[in-house]
Specification:
The protein has helices at residues 19-37, 53-61, 66-83, 97-112, 166-175, 183-194, 223-228, 230-233, 241-247, 260-274, 305-312, 314-324, 335-365, 377-398, 402-423, 425-428, 435-456, 461-470, 480-483, and strands at residues 3-11, 41-48, 90-93, 116-126, 131-133, 151-160, 180-181, 200-201, 203-204, 212-213, 216-221, 252-256, 281-285, 288-290, 293-294, 331-333. It is α/β, with parallel strands linked by helices. A six-stranded parallel sheet has the order 3-2-1-12-13-7, sandwiched between helices. β1 (3-11), α1 and β2 form a beta-alpha-beta unit. Bound molecules: 5'-O-[(L-methionyl)-sulphamoyl]adenosine (MSP).
């Protein structure tokens, strides 16, 4: 069986997860669920980046031991991912012993390859980024990502000889255009690497928090070197050779655009140095903006994902983010668009389709699905739309165009509702000689609902299972996209139930300018 290994970034636990981190995790979850439904042996890794100075400072500011603080914060992440139905197979924390061991192992390999040397670093350090900046990287003296004042830092560190890898990196991007996606991000990376490629520091003189450098216990491993290593330690590097051989190299690292340099320049060079194969793709998404600012833990532009899930349910949050925010560009979160999407797409289009279909079956056939009769042009057009929705969904998901895949799926939702209008089952029901036609129409629209449940499985898994349950079908299972998407697989004579509306309409609040 083919394997598929994908990862999210590991998040800093110096604040609770927010909607931006949820976005990245949900997008990755959609892909992981899709791969499982396609029958891949899938491994989906997420976790926490704990050995960072910003985490240590935050803990000490609160008078807490950093490890206790991380343990507390980890629960918020686990809890949110559970509430959002994130289907990760691994949750790595970089303070775990096996990770520490493997991070040291990787660094030792780079050292043995002659790529690590001692030098003095003098430069600006941005704590939220955990990254060094030169004078000309700063914008008005501030970090270009966080708009925060960096700290002047001067210390003796170990460096990784990144400059040695310039040619090999450029050749790698050239030979593997899928290595950085979307394409325009790869162009940014190529330009970065074509310019001056500075060696980067891989250790810090912090003895209180972090993983000791294997060849100098006076220093700890720089948090980005340590953090990137999670992608291999999370699937057994230095611990479980069998698991490592099974899943590595990763098929996809999903990241935000602000951490491209670390993933697309530093990480491949580190792996080349240590003689470890390179991941297939790094997919960089954009940022969610809210009231004109990037949503982030430090800026107070927060939309609380915990509250959102409590109020509207996991699927509504997952659906909104995947439908409204493109997975390659920045997108805007607004409450107005949330309510619009919920009411228009989920309550009206999808919810009504399921409700009308099952209610008509109850009304006209006592809830027992009739067998279809001969096919008319209208029936064929519904079947064709289902086929092209399946193809569009697969294409979009394969190419990480997660919102385009959803657009395709929606063509079937729309067509199925139109099909009901065009065939007017309520009129057919009045004419006894149209009984067979009525049965055919209701069979076809029920079949469309079944196919929609499978297609929506990666996005709104709870709703998909609820839809299948109403149709008397088993819940989503691995491999079902390979054998279950054929039109006409739904066997007649089964009992279909109606149930409550899947998405009761929301009353829309008054919106002020700022929402
Ligand atoms: N710990 C590092 C990642 C190490 S991976 C080896 C880190 N952590 S973070 O918590 O600051 O950010 C994690 C991810 O969240 C980044 O990919 C970042 O782009 C993403 N997002 C943070 N705010 C976001 C939005 N407002 N919108 C979308 N993604 C956002 O960086």
């Amino acid at each position: 069986m083919s394997t598929y290994y994908l990862t999210t970034p590991i998040y800093y636990p110096n604040a609770k997860p927010h909607i931006g981190t949820a976005f990245c995790t949900i997008g990755s979850d959609v892909q992981a669920r899709y791969r499982r439904l396609q029958g891949y042996d899938t491994f989906f890794l997420t976790g926490l980046d704990e050995n960072s100075l910003n985490v240590e400072r935050q803990a000490r500011n609160q008078g807490k031991d950093p490890q206790d603080y991380c343990d507390e914060m980890a629960e918020f992440f686990r809890d949110l991912w559970e509430r959002l139905n994130i289907s990760h197979d691994g949750f790595i924390r970089t303070t775990e012993e096996h990770h520490k061991h493997a991070a040291r192992l990787l660094l030792q390999k780079c050292y043995d390859a002659g790529d690590i040397y001692k030098g003095t670093y003098a430069g600006w350090y941005c704590l939220p980024c955990e990254a060094f900046y030169a004078d000309d990287d700063l914008v008005d003296g501030k970090c270009p990502v966080h708009d925060a004042e960096p700290e002047w830092t001067e210390e003796e560190n170990y460096f990784f000889a990144l400059s040695k890898y310039q040619d090999r990196l450029l050749a790698f991007y050239e030979e593997h255009p899928e290595s950085v996606l979307p394409d325009f991000r790869r162009n940014e990376v190529v330009n970065m690497v074509r310019g001056e490629l500075r060696d980067f520091s891989i250790s810090r003189a912090n003895k209180t928090w972090g993983i000791p450098v294997p060849f100098d216990e006076e220093q700890v491993i720089y948090v980005w070197f340590d953090a990137l290593t999670n992608y291999i330690t999370g699937v057994g590097y230095g611990r479980d050779d069998e698991q490592f051989a099974r899943y590595w190299p990763a098929d996809a690292h999903v990241i935000g655009k602000d951490i491209i340099r670390f993933h697309c320049v530093y990480w491949p060079a580190m792996l080349m140095s240590a003689g470890v194969p390179l991941p297939t793709t790094v997919w960089a998404h954009g940022w969610i903006m809210f009231r004109g600012l990037k949503i982030s833990k430090s800026r107070g532009t927060d939309v609380d994902p915990f509250d959102m899930v409590d109020e509207f349910g996991a699927d509504a949050v997952r659906f909104y983010l995947m439908r409204e925010i493109p997975f390659d560009q920045d997108g805007i979160f607004s409450w107005e668009s949330f309510y619009n999407r919920y009411n228009a797409d989920l309550a009206n289009d999808l919810g009504n389709l399921v409700h009308r279909t099952t209610s008509m079956l109850a009304r006209y056939f006592d809830g027992v699905l009739p067998a279809p009769g001969g096919e008319t042009a209208l029936d064929a057009s519904l079947r064709d739309t289902a086929q092209s929705a399946i193809e569009g969904a697969e294409q979009g998901l394969e190419s990480w165009d997660l919102d385009a895949a959803l657009d395709s799926i929606w063509t079937l939702v729309t067509r199925a509702n139109q099909y009901i209008e065009e065939n007017a089952p309520w009129e057919l029901a009045k004419a006894p000689d149209q009984r067979e036609r009525l049965g055919t129409v209701l069979y076809n629209v029920t079949e469309a609902v079944r196919i929609l449940a499978l297609l929506l499985g990666p996005y709104i898994p709870q709703t998909a299972d609820a839809m299948l349950d109403r149709l008397g079908e088993p819940p989503l299972a691995a491999g079902v996209w390979q054998h279950g998407l054929e039109w006409g697989s739904l066997t007649p004579e089964r009992t279909v139930t109606t149930g409550k509306p899947l998405f009761p309409r929301l009353e829309v609040p008054e919106f002020s300018e700022s929402t």
